[in-house]
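Re: heme C structure - here you go.
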Amino acid sequence: MKISRSRFTIHLTVYLLCLVGWAPFVTADNHGAEPPVSYHSQIVPILKRSCQGCHHPGDPNADLIVTTYADLKRGGMAGEAIIPGKPDDSLIIELISGDEPAMPQNMEPLSAEEVELFRRWILEGATDDTPAEVDDMADGDYPTYLVPPVVTALAYSPDGSTLAVSGFREILLYDATTYELKARLVGKAHRIESLTYTADGKILGMAGGSAAQFGEVQLWDAATNTLIKAMRSSYDTIYGLSFSPDASRVAFGCSDQTVRVLSVEDEKELIKFDNHSDWVFGTIFSVDGSHFVSAGRDTALKLVEVDTGSFVDDINSSNKGYGEINTIARHPAEDQVLNGGEDRIPRLYKIFREIRRDVGNTDFNLIQAYEAQSGSIEGLAFSADGTQFATGCAGGEARIYNVADGTRLASMQGDAVGVFTVSFHPDGKQLATGGFDGKIRVFDTASGKLLNAFMSVPIESAGSEDVALVVSGMT
Ligand code: HEC
């Protein structure tokens, strides 16, 4: 009797304690002092190692995407894979546990401890504790440089007044007559990979991003040098920005093997084209804006219809072993695309096919293959009148050619390591180059003579106290 009474008392006490302890910590009551599972530091590493290889945005078969919290939460074809507070109702737990777990498909199952981390994270509410983006630079500050940054992008404004130059986290605007620095456009993206003006010159567009974090398109008002908008896309740096002729859309290439087209007005993703099998470095629109062309490491030049996002044609013959394409440029007035890359040969193609493909898979759209360059081609540009094009190459040489007959008009040696970007002044008389050593060189296009060379950014003298940021790397 005594015993049972005291047992009753103990039971009641435990019961009451549970009630008290239970209410505020609904889901954490049976884990004592153990800290809650961190999505950022415990779940993400498992997702990256065991799941992301198949469940990433570049995989055409992936319904479920695990590269961001929002995507993971959204779930896949079967709907939400995670029900906060209810591990037993969560598809993800069902798929990763058991004797022969379905996921990760055809791979080593997660350890019991890892499955338990997922279970507990969901039980505790499946919250996102990813730290807010840290920004080490205050508004109004400029990046400081100890060493020259690699120059990855250059663009003259269509009115010929300005040369836009890539820096680290910023675009630097130089007066195209005096080559004096006149403005610095600082944004969030660390890498500036591509710079291009709209045809009317009103907007300067940038594509870049911060490695393994986000891709970003920035649109700057060229009259006021203010940011119109920054649009994030993909989870890595993006490349090869182009505007549709009416500037209502932007296209760019991604390291997840996709090409994306965004609406400038409402920032909606209109197209996510996933027909490439490697990184995409370049995009251009056709003259009427009805199609775009994309190219990259997979050596293919793809033609895509803008309205539907559907693949139309392989412009080049991918069975020719041409090598990776680093850069493409469209003729200013014709539906012709010039490409260059690993195999050093600039090739000019008709964008739209006029002859049916034959069995031999002849390179039917090819207009002309030009002379091999002294290194892999990193930069290409047409002159504004479309009569000339320029190349920039690994090894540091830049050259100018006559488009029509392929005559070499000038050879210019500057950067000792590599020229990564070239841009013609709209008057066609000057060519600006940028590359590994961080210097901008301006050449006379007729003679190939160096007119001007200057450092792309102000370099701090070593020992300066407030040096915060240093270099942007090569891609
Ligand atoms: C080798 C490839 C591969 C790996 C690795 C992999 N999965 Fe999958 N997974 C698939 C395929 C294929 C499907 C079916 C298509 C889809 O839904 O994405 C799938 C489906 C799923 C689904 C159902 C999605 C839906 O559409 O409703 C979940 C949940 C899932 N996987 C979770 C995981 C988790 C968690 C991991 C890592 C522990 C993982 N997968 C690793 C290939 C893989």
